[in-house]
Write a structure and sequence with these properties.
This is Exodeoxyribonuclease III. With about 260 residues, this protein is of the alpha+beta class. It is built from 8 helices and 14 strands. Helix 3 packs parallel to helix 5.
Length: about 260
């Protein structure tokens, strides 16, 4: 079972690339982030024509998450996180597919630092940690897949110096990620590549793709029961190099059947 996290950076602009990816790789579950689409304009028919059922939590022009399942309809469990009744941003969606619980996560960027956007990032992280704890208590196979906007380790970035002042690498951001993982989650890509050096994002600016100046911010965390089924993990890097591609590459984990 191949589960993918894919920040598409605008689903309408990247739809040909997404459909191409679904047709070619045929992943079982795809968690999308940064749809930049309202619920009404989500391209459901195109995705169904590609053989995937879908649920989505949209927001016009910003954010937005979705979960796709091959030859199946994801069963929604939760949209949005508790703990802030004033939060209207579409960043969390949770579903069940074939006995597996999956969540599509688009954690706030947090720049500039310091400031209210960074405080929102940390507060949102706290709420995610609370939800993750509740999921672990269910003692089921769970995958938390998404763009976490956190570079966890120095070997997860092309240049520590270049990103030192960015919200993605602040001590508070990293500490929150460590607190989440320490609950008992397995960082699947880190497990597969313990020495780092694997990127999931390359900026459009300054020839980052051509220079391979990237970093790892897309993560798939596994509950203990999902980790028991771990088979492999990786990044489908070549899709970042296609015309009109997202600045993220599809990042994936493969689990053995239960």
């Amino acid at each position: 079972m191949k589960i993918v996290s894919y920040n598409v950076n605008g689903i309408k602009a990247r739809l040909p690339r997404l459909i191409e990816y679904l047709d070619s790789e045929q992943p079982d579950i795809v968690c999308l982030q940064e749809l930049k689409s309202s619920d009404e304009t989500f391209p459901e028919s195109d995705i169904r024509d590609a053989g995937y059922g879908a649920i989505w939590h949209g927001q016009k022009g910003f954010n937005g998450v979705a979960i796709l399942a091959r030859d199946a309809d994801p069963v929604e469990r939760k949209r949005g996180l508790e703990g802030d009744p004033d939060d209207v941003q579409s960043r969390y969606l949770e579903a069940e597919v074939d006995g597996l619980i999956v969540a599509s996560i688009y954690l706030p960027n947090g720049n500039p630092v310091p400031g209210p956007k960074f405080e929102y990032k940390l507060g949102w992280f706290d709420r995610l940690i609370d939800r993750a704890s509740a999921l672990l208590a269910e003692e089921r196979a769970v995958v938390l897949a998404g763009d976490y906007n956190v570079i966890p380790h120095d070997d997860d970035v092309f240049s520590v110096h270049a990103m030192a002042s960015d919200a993605l690498m602040q001590p508070e951001s990293r500490a929150a990620y460590r607190r989440l993982v320490a609950q008992g989650w397995t960082d699947s890509l880190r497990t597969r590549f313990p020495r780092g050096g694997v990127w999931t994002f390359w900026d459009y600016q300054a020839g980052a793709w051509q220079r391979d100046a990237g970093f790892r911010i897309d993560h798939l965390l596994l509950s203990p029961r999902a980790a028991d089924r771990f088979a492999d993990a990786g990044v489908d890097k070549r899709y970042r190099g296609l015309e009109k591609a997202s600045d993220h590459a599809p990042t994936w984990v493969r689990l053995n059947k239960a």
